[in-house]
Design a protein that fits this description.
about 500 residues, alpha+beta, Immunoglobulin-like, Rossmann fold, Tumour Suppressor Smad4, 3 domains, seven-stranded antiparallel beta sheet, six-stranded mixed beta sheet, 26 strands, about 30% helix, rod-shaped, FHA domain-containing protein, SMAD_FHA_dom_sf, transmembrane helix
């Protein structure tokens, strides 16, 4: 006895957990107020939810949120979408089915002009697996045609073993409604049945409840009195948990009254429907990508996704692009002009050197470039105050001067020392920054007031008045000295 009791207790707990797992559903996610995300949560009807029972996570981080009860304006809309299901089985054959048909035909006369209606009858699932026989391919406002179809087509089997697949028919009907577009938002499913389901059906009541909550389509049920107390209890649970309503009826007048009430109902029930809106702010960027979040309620978890809108670019972006393009173009033009000027200058310098080479060649003096040497970078001579006696710029002195010109380099030196070295290297008294001038090119010596020029074995030799010198050469005022491409003038 104890073992049976324990097994029964475990089974009850397992069933309770299964039922509970169906009571928490994320129906939809709204991003119209991005970055504010609105998640619609459906709990069991009459559930009083508290914010402390929920958690919202995104990228494994818990977010702040607000929770409020959902208000469904769709339930108060005048236009409705009505799908009426009529059971046609061995349990409804005969008088019960005729009462169903008459009640539906009578109720359809009260449908509003803007309502969209469809009717289907169902029995045991066919070999194709379908339980529904839908009278119209689309929802329609033409109730006159539907009435004729109900009268001529809806029929049942006399065989009492022919048990209808009620839950499968309801499940298929919900799918049919959801698949249709441009229907009034106030949707409801009305089922007229004996409420005894085929035990072999793969679809159960919990499957119908979950789909009803997800699609936000309440289920209204009219149960034909069969004397079996279990049957109406099934529909009571089905309607109560989907925000619908149920009633027991047997006579045609009772069925008609219930049908009219369910079809014409336009106001929402005052009871707590168990629908809540959970709002949170996301940090995800508006880039049109799909993101996932998770809602936890008590010991349950439900993942959901949403797609962020694409942020529209402002006109300032175009202005910034134009400004950057203009500035960039101006900089490119400036750099181009600078480069062209540099090339022109270098070309002129090269032309000048070529002219000097041609002139030297015409006089029989060949000027050769320095071989395997890197030209040393020279700066104009900066003369410290203590070395003014060695090399100074001309200015009021009676000593001879040497005027040096090499490309862009031009400077005048006073020859006030007994001996003055000339070359490209920085260690010389006179430094000439020219590649064709040797490191130690020549020397000028003052001997008793006479100034002699001596070549120090330079590569391109030393010329005075276009004649190569040998040994010491006495300089005279006005002599033109050439050292490679550099020109020097001796002046007393």
């Amino acid at each position: 006895m104890r073992i049976k009791f324990i097994c029964l207790l475990i089974s009850s707990l397992f069933f309770a957990l299964q039922v509970q797992s169906q009571n928490f559903i994320i129906q939809s996610t709204d991003v119209s107020a991005y970055p504010l995300i609105r998640s619609r949560i459906q709990l069991s009807p009459a559930t009083e939810a508290k914010a402390g029972e929920f958690k919202v996570l995104e990228d494994r981080k818990e977010l702040e949120f607000t929770l409020k009860e959902a208000t469904d304006s769709a339930n108060t809309a005048k236009e409705k979408t009505l799908f009426i299901l009529i059971e046609a089985s061995g349990f409804t054959y005969g008088k019960a089915l005729e009462n169903f048909k008459k009640a539906v035909n009578e109720s359809l006369s009260g449908v509003n002009a803007g309502d969209k209606v469809n009717v289907a009858y169902f029995g045991k699932a066919s070999k194709t697996g379908r339980a529904l026989n839908i009278l119209s391919a689309e929802f329609t406002s033409d109730v006159a045609t539907l009435k004729r179809e109900i009268t001529s087509q809806v029929s049942a089997s006399r065989d009492t073993t022919y048990v209808a697949d009620v839950y499968k028919a309801i499940y298929e009907a919900l799918d049919f409604i959801v698949a249709k577009q441009n229907l009034p938002e106030n949707k409801r499913l009305i089922v007229l049945s004996a409420a005894i389901n085929n035990s072999r059906s793969p679809i159960k009541a919990e499957d119908c409840i979950e789909k009803s909550l997800r699609s936000r389509i309440p289920i209204y049920t009219i149960t034909y009195k069969t004397g079996n107390r279990y049957a109406p209890d099934n529909f009571v649970r089905l309607s109560d948990r989907t925000n619908g309503e149920t009633t027991l009826a047997k006579t045609q007048s009772e069925i008609s009254a219930a049908s009219k009430k369910f079809i014409s109902r336009t106001t929402a029930s005052k009871k707590n429907t168990g629908a809540y809106i959970l709002e949170f702010t996301t940090a995800n960027k508006a880039n049109g990508r799909l993101y996932q979040y998770e809602v936890r309620y008590q010991n349950q978890r439900q993942p959901a996704t949403y797609t962020t809108p694409v942020q529209e670019s402002s006109g300032y972006g175009l202005y910034i692009f134009i400004i950057v393009a203009l500035v960039g173009g101006g900089m490119a033009w400036f750099l181009y002009q600078t480069k062209q000027k540099k090339l022109a200058f270098e070309s002129g310098k090269q032309a000048e050197q070529d002219a000097l080479l041609r002139q030297a060649s015409a006089t029989g003096n060949r000027i050769q470039p320095e071989v395997n040497r890197q030209p040393e970078r020279s700066q104009p001579v900066q003369v410290p105050a203590k070395d003014l006696k060695r090399t100074i710029l001309a200015g009021g002195s009676t000593s001879p001067v040497l005027m040096v010109s090499a490309g862009t380099f031009s400077q005048t030196f006073t020859l006030s020392q007994p001996q003055i070295t000339i070359g490209r290297s920085n260690g010389n008294d006179i430094v000439i920054p020219e590649a064709t001038v040797s490191g130690k090119h020549a020397v000028i010596s003052n001997e008793n007031g006479n100034f002699y020029l001596t070549d120090l074995g330079s590569t391109n030799s030393t010329l005075v008045n276009n004649a190569r010198i040998q040994g010491k050469h006495l300089l005279k005022s006005g002599d033109i000295i050439r050292m490679g491409a550099a020109q020097l003038k001796f002046q007393i």
